User: What shape does this take?
Amino acid sequence: MSEQSIDTHAPHQATPSRWEKIWDSNMAYSFRRNPVAMASMAIFLLIALLSFLAPVIAPYDPYDPASIDLMNSEYPPAWVEGALPEFALGTDDQGRDLLSTILYGTRLSIIIGLCAVALQAFLGISIGLIAGYIGGRTDSLLMRMADIQLSFSTLMVAIIFLAVTQALFGSETFNRYAVFFLIAVIGVAEWPQYARTVRATVLAEKKKEYIDSARVLGFGPMRIMLRHILPNSLSPIFVISTVQVANAIISEASLSFLGLGMPPSQPSLGSLISAGFDYIYSGSWWITVIPGIVLVVLVLVINLLGDWVRDVLNPKLYKG
Assistant: This one.
């Protein structure tokens, strides 16, 4: 058989699948070589998985009054003398199982953080695209709004807004819709971070030849912004979003600790820390300390993942 016939009947090389392409990408390669990123991702996924499976794996339901007994309040964790075996991490001041309450509270804190960041990204990306692409007075007006917003801290804006809202609607209505109020105020308070980043990308991209070609082909401004310019802004957006999730969780915990966030009947990490702070000097340290440790670990691993994403997506920092 001739060499030509052998080459003709040689099997074609299989096209790599989508998962194989992802596995062989620079980001996946960097992730496999970074033990800190791998450990942070594993811890975050473990915390998120346990919290979102709380209705299935939690020993008790902290929202069910039938499972709460005030006579069981302030029992210590299982490794401390005087504990009850059915409460592994002890109980809080209301007699709720602390392990179950932390699982439900962590889920609520993560949901608030993710939804608040989604709102921040939507507002900031929209304003940044419009300001950078249109320019002129529109750009100046929107950026001055961003400057005014940045002159106030997130907590200052949130405290004023939530205090006024609580006074207008009353404590009962505020507690019922506290999740939505927190998402709204944290989301609105942080949009300038996205707007400034996206605007800078738009100003750089709209002068390039492919944008001129898109205009010549008759594409409208909306299509150019969403289909051509926005994809080139995704790298810094991912980095900002990772950091902002941690900031949003911290903001929620801070507001709940100050009494302007989640009520005690709807446990979050912040409200648990706040509820236990009054009992820490009486010896019931676990009500505050254990949720505080969970909050610190959660924010820490998210920030470490954010640092890794920043290093990978920044060509000046990425070393392969």
